Amino acid sequence: MDAQGRGRDEGIDPADQWVLNPDTGDYELRLTPSSGRSSTSSGSPGTSDARASGSRRRPGPATPPPGDRASVPGQRGRRGAEGGRGGRDESGRGDRDEPRKAGSRAAPPAQGRRKAKPKKSGKKKALVWTGGVIAFLLVGTGTAGYLVYQHFNGNITSVSTDGAGTGGFSKDRAINVLVIGTDKRTGKGNEGYGDAGSVGHADTNILFHVSKDRTNATALSIPRDLITDIPNCPTQLADGTKKDIPGTAGGRFNTSLGQSERTPSCTMRTVTELTGLEVDHFMVADFAAVKSLTTAVDGVDVCLAKDIDDKDSHLKLSKGEHTLQGEQALAFLRTRHSVGFGSDLSRIEIQQQFLGSLMRKLKSNDTLTSPTKMWSLAEAATKALTVDDTIADINQLRKLGMELASVDPKNITFTTVPVLDNPNDKATVILDESKAPQVFSMMREDVSFTAVEKQEKAAAKAAADAKLKGEMADPADVRVDVFNGGAPAGSAQNALDWLQNEEGVLKSTNKANAPADVKKTQLVYAPNQADQARRLADLMGLSASALKPTKTDAGDMDPMVLTLGPDFKTAGSPLTAPQKAPDDIQRVEADKAVCAK
User: What is the pLDDT of residue 407?
Assistant: First the structure.
């Protein structure tokens, strides 16, 4: 029997019904409410005296859900009325943010404050991403809570970012998390898959981008067989030594990990060079992680539009709906020959469908209200995933999870880097230069791939404002100095040639490298140069955020200053992100169930 079944009190959060018995050190199911009952409402003798003194009756032993007694460490809490619960606030619910210091006293439970059907908090939703902080739901924030916190922290494996990332996510900007699935065959039962000697390449790669306003997210799959440049990678090796691993021009993306002792930090650098997006964090999962995580949530629902019998992945399923976990889930994610065109791109599509279903499962009440599932998920996640060293702590994972979990699944879009078959090698793919830059630009500028009401209103306002900005100067009257502030080599001259020869901006000068690099292209102009700025912005496709007015007017012969950033690729290509994704790119929303074909 668990907290979802017989004995559950209607007004009590099911997670609160599992408490630590300080006398035995075991977790027990509390079937009697801790507050909200008058002294005369219970027929149990002695209840009135116990509640009047602020103490709590300890229930007799109860059997925890299967696996709980084995997986929950048997810590002993402080003896006394507050033993094992600790840190309760005036509403009768524990503070779940930080563990309470040992020895601090808890306030007695307030009477009559428990309300029926409490709304799920944002913290509980965050657990679907980070798992580990379920400890706080199970044991409150007392001494036992701290020990469980330590238990989960001890599960975490981390690897250095080697300075490749931003140094950590922030609440006031967009978040980019790189999820890497490796083909490393370590772990029980994985020896027989494919290349048993693989060092673990970057075989499945998803860059999860969450917008600054947290209204939407894009999960961008990067094909393992994409031909791209892998940069030089300063790397801290497993033995602690440091090594500069040379880059590779025109290599497969999946060799950014494993090959030549490269670590996930090198994959981070490769993603940034490819997309122009700086990565905050990475998480790495292997075959064993897939099996343990899908088992922890009692399987993931998938739909097949046809029968599948894949000899390579060993997946054999009939047409229709199935719930997969463990070996079957792994086989589904490895299947490619029996779906789509039989390529790795087809496998990416079913992986996206699977992950969308997993997100829906994790956010369902069936998962969120089950202490057993949440504990299993926490245990599996913290043991199975390797994370970067800036989030190698349950508290940091919790904070990151709260940010990621705030996005509605209907505004989470799975898409894939637009690619073309490599004409020189049919086994690999190359960037589709007509579409990929648009996708990268949309992500950099936080443009959603789905219809988000808040963003649509902002776009409409921006369009209305643009009409009120006034007249534009003639191209021949535009005076501007062009600097390279982080764009590809030769960009300043490339822009100058285009402006002068194609657009008639003759009063333009190449000033070579800027005194300092910029994050993205910007145009600095004086108030009396606004008409020139509008013309240049129109010609180059600059966004409003790229325009930086000064406070004082300029002299008649003073030029504006255009500094080209990493977002500048070639002259004539607009620097503003399109407001709509290309119609024919592959994509699927996380809230939609799609059948694998």
Answer: 86
Q: What pLDDT digit, counting tens, does each position of 72-103 carry?
A: 333 333 333 333 333 334 333 333 333 333 44
Segment (H or E) for 249: strand 248-252
Q: How far is CA 328 from the centre of its chain?
A: 25
What mean pLDDT do residues 514-542 have? 92
Q: Which phi and psi angles does 421 have, rounded to 5°?
A: -60, 140
Pairing of the two strands 412-416 and 217-221: parallel
What is d(CA 150, CA 164) in angstroms, rounded to the nearest whole number? Answer: 28
Whether residue 297 contacts residue 361, with contact meaning beta carbons closer than 8 Å, is answered with yes
pTM over 0.70? The answer is no
Structure-token match 């919790």, residue found: 398
557 class by beta-carbon count within 10 Å (0-12 exposed, 13-18 middle, 19+ buried) = exposed
The pair of three-digit structure tokens given for residue 409, joined into one six-digit string: 């699944």
User: Cα(194)–Cα(203) distance, rounded to whole angstroms?
Assistant: 13
Pairing between β-strand 18-20 and β-strand 27-29 as defined by DSSP bridges = antiparallel
Q: What is the dihedral of CA 128, 133, 138, 142, to 10 degrees?
A: -160
At 110, the amino acid letter reads A
- Contact between 591 and 410 under an 8 Å Cβ cutoff? The reply is yes
Query: Do 541 and 579 meet the contact criterion of CB atoms below 8 Å apart?
Result: no
Rounded to whole angstroms, how far apart are CA atoms 341 and 99?
52
The burial of 474, by beta-carbon neighbours within 10 Å (0-12 exposed, 13-18 middle, 19 or more buried), is given as: exposed
Helix 344-362 and helix 326-334: axis angle, to 10°? 140
CB-count burial class (<10 Å; 0-12, 13-18, 19+) for 532: buried
Query: DSSP label at 206?
Result: E
What is the per-residue pLDDT for 374?
Answer: 74
C-alpha distances out from residue 319 to 298, 307, 336, 395, Å: 21, 4, 16, 43
555's torsion region: left (phi>0), alpha (psi -120 to 50) or beta?
beta
pLDDT score recorded for residue 39? 38
What is the CB-side half-sphere exposure of residue 566 using CA atoms within 13 A?
14
H helices of 424-580, where? 436-444, 453-466, 491-502, 530-540
Is the pLDDT confidence value at 518 over 70?
A: yes
Q: How far, in Å, CA of 313 to CA of 162, rounded? A: 35
- pLDDT exceeds cutoff 70 at 64: no
- Burial of 43 per CB tally in 10 Å (0-12, 13-18, 19+): exposed
Which tokens is 22 given? Answer: 């300080």
* Greatest alpha-carbon span in the chain: 95
**pLDDT reported for residue 372:** 77
pLDDT digits (tens, 9 = 90+) for 223-250: 999 999 999 999 999 889 999 999 999 9
